[in-house]
Amino acid sequence: MTEGLEQRILELLRAQGAAEGELTAQSNIIADTSLDSVSVMDLVLELEDEFDVAIPLGRIAEVKTVADLADAIRDLRSAGVQ
């Protein structure tokens, strides 16, 4: 399930205009993309809608990589945080 989440996050990053180049699950969402903070928040809102979760800002602050974000979404879905 996490791999599917990672792939969807990567697709959405590209749709948000992430820097060209190879993005992977280990890509740093800020350092490895050219996205500004507004674009990152747009991404988070889109992910919340798509996966029917609410991602607390404190949790977002802990997220560094695409894999971290996928893990956070998976954990929130498992916990039933909506």
Automatic annotation (TrEMBL):
Source superkingdom = Bacteria
One Pfam family from the record = PP-binding
Residue intervals of the Carrier domain: 1-77
Query: Which InterPro entries does the protein's record reference?
Result: ACP-like_sf, PP-bd_ACP
PROSITE patterns in the cross-refs: CARRIER (PS50075)
Q: What is this protein called?
A: Acyl carrier protein
